Structures are given as structure tokens and as C-alpha cells.
Amino acid sequence: MNASVKLLEKVLPSTVALHTQIRDDHPSAQILGTERQGSGVIVDPAGLILTVNYVVMGGSDIRVSLLGRSAQPGRVVAQDFASGLALVAIDAPHLQALVPAESSELLLGQEVFIVAAADEDNRRVHDGVISSMAPFDAYWEYSLDRAICTTAMNPGVGGGPLLDVLGRVVGIVSLDLNEVGRFTLAIPVDEYISHRDELLRHGHRVTRPPRAWIGFYCYTLRDHVVLAGVLPGTPGERAGLKAGDVVLAVDDQRINDRRQLYTQVWTHRPGENISISVFRNNEVKLITIESGDAEIFFA
Prior knowledge:
With 299 residues, the protein is an alpha+beta fold. The protein has 3 domains: 5-89, Beta Barrel (Thrombin, subunit H), CATH 2.40.10; 103-191, Beta Barrel (Thrombin, subunit H), CATH 2.40.10.10; 216-297, PDZ domain (Pdz3 Domain, Roll). It has helices at residues 5-11, 29-32, 53-56, 190-202, 235-239, 258-265, 294-297; strands spanning 15-22, 35-44, 48-52, 59-66, 72-80, 85-89, 111-119, 122-132, 136-137, 143-144, 148-150, 161-164, 169-179, 182-188, 216-221, 224-230, 246-250, 253-254, 273-280, 283-290. A 6-stranded antiparallel β-barrel has the order 1-2-3-6-5-4. The chain has a 6-stranded antiparallel β-barrel with strand order 7-8-11-14-13-12. Strands 15, 16, 17, 18, 19 and 20 form a 6-stranded antiparallel sheet that branches. The chain is globular, with a radius of gyration of 20 Å.
């Protein structure tokens, strides 16, 4: 599909560019930097913008730019650490909003397109098809039961909308995968549709039980999970986990892949102890970790 001029005229006014200044002392600053650019999409005429959480997490100042209009201040009104979505609000009523649509209606091979901000007053578009709707896990403690992968390449910065041929928002662009047939990963917009009311009322998900969090990065290698790093100041660092540790078991449950590791950790709540067996320097070590809460750590 080559997005038609009429369709682009419909969707482009609902896209925004985000510029976020992050506090120097925020834990995410050492990972993602103190100045971030992002995309977003207006999903409510009252000025509600859907984007990806890493763009605004820890933001002390957020500037939102609509096409042809001066930048204005934005504020984070909700963050969903489980899905990776965030909601930003601006004081600009009667905006042109796009309709979020359940991604459960999507089919493999279906045509979609991405609109992303390149700068404050410039948008770029790229199209492709849905190539996967499978579960996904990332190198940090993050997993989706269903993620949208597409052959469309992200033409700008993350947080922009993935749209169907009717101009409906079916996902929010999160990661550039750069894999054959899987160039871009988007978070299904269902995560927003299903939890919109509680996100706006409480600023976060209250119906999901808090998950234990350790604070490491990892990858799967030959049926083993290897720690790539441990974030400073986290439960994992305090307990003595190190980059290069091979995770053998959690609570005596053998671990063979990353998703299994996350699932086992998430059987605990923050504050509970988790026993992890690791292989390091040709010996097995048993490490007990008092788990934390990512939402509190990155608040």
C-alpha cells in the first residue's frame, strides 16, 4: 500500500513530535540519556496523546509539537510499565484525534503504515505488512503476550502510530528490530483500550498485581540465559549479580530461555526474596535477592 494523499491528510494532523528533558538524577538517564525525541498520536480531542513510555519516563520538561503549530508544554498523566505505553496531555481542546482499533482484528499480511516525527514540523511515512503477532520478550525485564511485528521500517523516532488502511491506530511503535521481515515492533493499542479508564484515574495500572523486579539485562545463548549487565542501584546489583553470570535456576526451577526467566521472577511480588543459581568462574553460586519494583525505581 502506498498511503493515499487523502488518507495522509486525515492522519498527519493527529501526529505529534515530543521533546523531553530528563532529570540528571533519574535512573533512566544513564541508559537513555537526558534529552529524548519521540513521536506520538492524539487519541482524544481533549488533548490526550499516546506514546511509548521510554520517551517520557523521568521527564522534567516535555514539549509537544503539532504540525504547523508552536510547541507547547505537555505532562505525563499515565504510565503502563507492563505494556510500555504512556499518556501525555496538552491543554489544547478540540484537536483532531485518531480512533484506536483492537489489533485482534489484524491478519498476517495485512497492510499497515507508520507515521513518525523526524523533527518538530516534519513527519515521515513508511508502509509494509503485518509479519508476526507472536509473543515478544526484550533484553530488559519486559515481555508482551502478543506484539505486532511489521515489514514497515520506522522512518523516525519511536512512539508513533502504526495504522491500518482506514487510518485507525492499531499499535504504537516501540523498537527497531532490523530483522528480515521484522523491521519494527509495535505495542498493540489494545493495551490502551482495555485499561484507559484506570490509567487516567490512577496514572498507572492498578488491576495488575505488582511484579518483582531485579534490574538486569540478559540474552539467551544455547538454551541458557546470560546476564549482559546489571543496572546500578538495583536489587540485582546489591545482591551481587554480575555481567557474564549464566542463570541456571530461579527458585529451583531450571531456566532455559529469557521469557521463562521473566515469568518465574514475576511469580513474586516486590519485596519478596528470590533465589537465583548462577554459573560464574567455573562454579555455581546461589544468590538471594530482595526484589524491587520497577515502577517505584523509575518514578
